[in-house]
Amino acid sequence: MKTVISGLENIVFGHRRLFIAIFLILTIFMGWSATRLRIDAGFGKLLPLHHEYMKTFVEHGKEFGGANQILIALKAKDGDIFTPEFFATLKAATDEVFFIPGVDRSKVRSLFTPNVRFTEVTEEGFAGGNVVPADFQNTPEGLQQVRKNILKSSVMGQLVAMDFSAAIISAQLLDIHPETGERLDYLDVANRLEKDVRSKFETDNISVHIIGFAKFIGDMTDGARRVVLFFGIAFLVTALLVYWYSQSLVLTAISLTCSLIAVIWQLGLLPLLGYGMDPMSILVPFLVFAIGVSHGVQMLGATRSEVFGGADNMSAARGSFRRLLVPGCIALASDTLGFLTILLIDIKMIQEMAITASIGVAMIILTNLLLLPLLLSWVSYSEAYKQKTRKRARNMEGVWRFLAKIAEPKPAALVLLVSIGLIVFGAWKGGDIKIGDLERGIPELRADSRYNRDSDLITSHFYIGVDILSVIAESVPEACIDYDLMTEIDRFAWHMNNVPGVLTVVSLPRVAKAVNAGWNEGYPKFQVLPRNQLLLVQSVKGLKTSSGLFNPDCSVMPVQIYTTDHKAETIARIVSEVKNYSNLHPMENLKFRLATGNVGVMAATNEEVSAAQFPILMYVFAAIILLCYATFRSVKALICILVPLGMVSLLGYALMTMLNIGLKVSTLPVVALGVGVGVDYGIYIYSRFKSLLDEGLPLQEAYLRTLEITGNGVIFTGITLAMGVATWIFSPLKFQADMGILLTFMLLVNMIGAILLLPALATWLMPSKRTANK
């Protein structure tokens, strides 16, 4: 290994100008390529497509509507909807939505669409028509007739608020733009909803409220763009900290430049590889920058240590390159593997995040372990600078001597006891962590965001709510006129309607029973499924497939379960009841399959996250074990490095439980990232510690020297990384704030673990090293 490193060192430093020129040319090219990077959001990217629920979703979503829906509620600020102004606005808004590119026009529903009808029982039998008739006149008489038609229909609570204060326009989105044939641009749809609907139709008397995936992506992207401000703040804070550490504008500029180059290369490679930037991944470049700065600080510290030891510029740069190449590569490889393990989550958006982050960390290997020492080889250090930094180092001697006492048996035992207590607490409290969302509304956005306020208004005014889980009842053709099959579906619907968390259930048998009662003068006694097949045919023949209650041959009938919310426990309870009922009531020619609807997507995602959480951690730790053992060839080294990581992982779960943060798509990666990035501290500390022990120094003295050389950089790195991601806490996006809280905690506590717990473990694992070798 030393021969390989020596050969690489000679090649790199023997051709400094050539390598600098290559870096410059590649940076210019990557910068140009980065200008072609686009925001890339897609509904399908959020779906775990190989999950069994999503197979049902894909198979039946197009026919019965999936979860890619938009709801636009127009609300009268005073009074009700039955005014000429409101109906004129509702009609115009319906027409506007109808012609938005990407809207499935056959599935647009509002009071003004022909697929919204009413049915009534008359002396001659059934009669019906459009809720808003074709010859509708926007007059008091016409509005009164529409009111009567609404009361005869099933749109109350669905398209019309229960108090008549609002009306909804519902639409499904296609995945492909119908004119261009390309994937639908959700940002364009979101912009059109704001510009052509909300801004156009919101007045002093009417408010407009919009929810749905496209609008969510639009709000996410708007919030993500504002994160650039936080990057600016983080950059400024980081620059000040690096300057405080290095006491040199030149060293500060070099360190920040190398980290920025890593980010430029990362962003430039994405379009070359066919990737865009998902709004959920917008923070990854900022994290890469912070990681780059942290490794740059280690290189600065090592180079200065060589200079203060009497080396010249070139020798110092070569010495730091030689000393940090292996531990730096191991640390960054651990970071990369931490990101790559997220690929285990079978959700395209998360996998793209993993690839994006891995590319960025790989670039740091080139910029901070290769380019940075090359640039440092040209930096000269004045005698005044050396005196100033030596003086500050002397001021820190008391701190290092105090911390070095950890390497004595009694203080080490105390640290181990406290750590055991923290591990027990973390395992106890972390065991209560929930999978999925723990709050109402969209948890990625803050509770007071426009989207969540719109969602709350729609939920409070419309009976069906905005969360739906559709269970697909699959049977034989013409099952809707088979009494036994229809009865079983009805029993299932009744059972689910009584499950806590279910708002209401809509199914074909339920509608058929209402129709049968209608054929019998509305008498409640006849609100049943007729056993006579001819009467059953009579009950369903007037219904259309556009109702979404059955397919053309009546072999598939969705049971639409509207839920009170999409909290983790609500989804888990309802899904469990569906499975239990299906297992306890098997029936030939009838199968209940989960699931379509937005809650179906969430259920699949939660199960995917639950299945992936432990394999991800296992693979991260396995990768770290292999890398560390290959480097240090010692089981004791593994214990010293891994135990602090394991403790912090458990405490991270405990913190999520205490802060009511669920384990979900946006937070699961943080667990892997915290471990992958946190191991850097342990690797740098142990690498220097072991080299000094191998030189024959006693354990406590070796750790004191380690702190003097590396400790300053490790502590500074932990603070720099933590302060960089702590700015995310103030993000307008809730999921970014959650990531900021968790990463700040894990990075700081990992740093503390490496400084305190690692030497405490070494003290008791390596007692022969407590005194100098004879």
Automatic annotation (TrEMBL):
Subcellular location: Cell membrane
Membrane-protein topology: Multi-pass membrane protein
Keyword Cell membrane found: yes
InterPro entries: MMPL_dom (IPR004869), Mycobact_MmpL (IPR050545), SSD (IPR000731)
GO cellular component assignments: plasma membrane
Keywords, sorted A to Z: Cell membrane, Membrane, Transmembrane, Transmembrane helix
Transmembrane segments: 18-35, 227-246, 253-276, 282-303, 324-345, 357-381, 411-428, 612-630, 637-656, 668-686, 707-730, 742-765
Domain annotation SSD: ranges: 226-378, 641-764
Domain of life of the native organism: Bacteria
Protein name stated in the entry: SSD domain-containing protein
PANTHER family per record: MEMBRANE PROTEIN MJ1562-RELATED, SSD DOMAIN-CONTAINING PROTEIN
Statement: the UniProt record of this protein carries the keyword 4Fe-4S: no
